[in-house]
Structure to design on (678 residues):
């Protein structure tokens, strides 16, 4: 089969890879319908993380073509959505809602779903079947649920977004934008998107942002304080993962407020004394997307949300290298690869 | 009046200070019945924080001797307990339960309650009167409520301690020990106290600890994992405030677990990537003791809890210097000063 390989930073190739087969009785094989390039794929692409001839991709939707003997909840022919961590969904950590930290978790990045087929470990605990075969127009939204929507949603839940609250969102990538969508759905009264990019500002407003703040760093924090009677936001969603963005998020929250951080932290060192006196709640990490998938699939299936709008470039798998380039150069927010 | 002054690190003097008077119509003056030396007073004593001829002390119980014209909830003659931050208890931050970050907060350390009298700003929002004049034996416990009990309690609440949970407590000072007591009262099933000090281990057990772990750092974390099926504790109370203790706390919590940290963080830099993948909730800071005071006073008044046991040395105010020395040398867990 054909699949994406990153040979080294900046070097993307679509080439033959071994077609996956059932290895464990809990596996399923899916024919990938669509996959995409993640903001986190840019870390190795830019040389911030090591990479050496690695299969790429951890987001996916597709049709089950084969199941292991122990798989009971999905069947051949089902259209499925899964998370970027395979999970058993039965251990104590999964039952508490932290499937991305399942005691048997497999990172799907190791599988490499930017490919024609993918082996999904722990299929029962990882995949959720859609109610039927989806219309073509739903596929981008279902694919978004696999990571960026689930991650933005977790950011909002981790930030304790709720009715009547003021929410600030740091980061205008796909995750930040979908954090706005999640905040709207979860009942936020006021949603402040921090963005200086006109197209992303427009999508943020479409998803429910009530205010746009273009300033960053301390100036951005001052604007948030101005908009919140000097107190700061009740909830802040951090969707970047840098020292600046984390401090911007913590400083934008009021004492006793909540910061949900889902940007993968790189070179971040949180100063203890500042964090202590901030009085904020801090929660985040790799999103337990599986926790939210049934609800997100329902919302998408019923056309209540349209998270697929974050995809602003669609390419065939064969053109994956151009997809990486477009995201690296910020010409695209999020690239969908059709398979 | 007589009061404690720290001239420089390690230099404690009890000397004449101006007797306080009403300065604002919201002030009250109290005759201090008992005060104490806080673990946080050791930071300047040891030269970790700057100090220069400062009045000392922020914990206090006593009798109201004078009130400003606008004070309505306490009267001359009332026996009162207050927090180490004065707060209006009416602003939006106070109403959310974060009185230590009240928009009008005054740190009581600036007042210096290790003295015969103290001026309490924002008396209505800061002081809680006891149901009557307390028996002598209740005074240590009421004094504990003013800071160490309220702080340990907040650590447990911030760590989301609750029924059926396993709780680990990092730190065996007065706050850690009272974190154990709080965890017991809040319904924890298993309470693991981390201590290598026999007398403190004994008090931890008396307060409700079910297990003692003497190891520290990575070995301590490994022991907590051993005791929790490899998962880590649901809730961890951090009551030290060093890099080692913070990492020990974070690493001792399971993914999705809660760390409540109340040790004042000094020279702490939290590594972002480790925190991200830990998946824990982190909350803490200066405890909003005022939130808990009414409940804590009730529990003490009704003899349901006896937090005063953390005081293992009682001295007259005139011997404050010996009290500081005993705590610095760890000869005493917590020193009560009678006035």
């Amino acid at each position: 089969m054909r699949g994406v390989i990153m040979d080294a930073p900046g070097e993307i190739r679509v080439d033959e890879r071994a077609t996956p087969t059932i290895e464990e009785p809990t596996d399923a094989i899916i024919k990938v319908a669509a996959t995409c390039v993640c903001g986190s794929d840019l870390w190795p692409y830019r040389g911030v993380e090591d990479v050496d001839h690695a299969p790429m991709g951890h987001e996916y939707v597709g049709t089950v073509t084969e199941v292991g003997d122990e798989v009971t909840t999905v069947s051949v022919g089902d259209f499925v959505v899964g998370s970027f961590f395979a999970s058993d969904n039965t251990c104590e950590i999964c039952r508490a809602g932290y499937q991305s930290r399942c005691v048997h978790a497999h990172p799907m990045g190791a599988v490499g779903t930017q490919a024609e087929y993918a082996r999904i470990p722990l299929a029962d605990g990882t995949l959720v079947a859609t109610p039927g075969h989806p219309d073509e127009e739903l596929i981008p939204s279902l694919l978004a649920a696999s990571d960026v929507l689930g991650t933005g949603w977790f950011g909002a839940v981790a930030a304790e977004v709720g009715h009547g609250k003021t929410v600030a969102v740091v980061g205008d990538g796909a995750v930040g934008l979908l954090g706005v969508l999640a905040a709207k759905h979860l009942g936020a009264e006021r949603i402040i998107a921090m963005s200086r990019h006109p197209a992303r500002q427009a999508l943020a407003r479409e998803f429910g942002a009530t205010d746009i703040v273009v300033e960053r760093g301390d100036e951005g924090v001052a604007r948030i304080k101005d908009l919140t009677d000097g107190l700061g936001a009740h909830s802040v969603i951090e969707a970047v993962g840098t020292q600046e963005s984390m401090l911007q998020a913590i400083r934008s929250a009021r004492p006793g407020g909540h910061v949900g951080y889902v940007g993968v932290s790189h070179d971040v060192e949180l100063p203890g004394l500042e964090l202590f006196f901030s009085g904020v709640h801090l929660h985040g990490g790799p999103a337990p997307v599986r926790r939210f998938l049934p609800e997100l699939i329902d919302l998408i299936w019923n056309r209540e949300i349209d998270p697929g709008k974050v995809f602003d470039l669609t390419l065939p798998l064969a053109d994956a290298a151009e997809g990486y380039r477009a995201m690296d150069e910020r010409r695209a927010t999020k690239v969908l690869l059709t398979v």
The longest helix of chain B spans residues 289-301. The radius of gyration of chain B is 19 Å. Chain B has a mean pLDDT of 97. The longest strand of chain B covers residues 28-37.
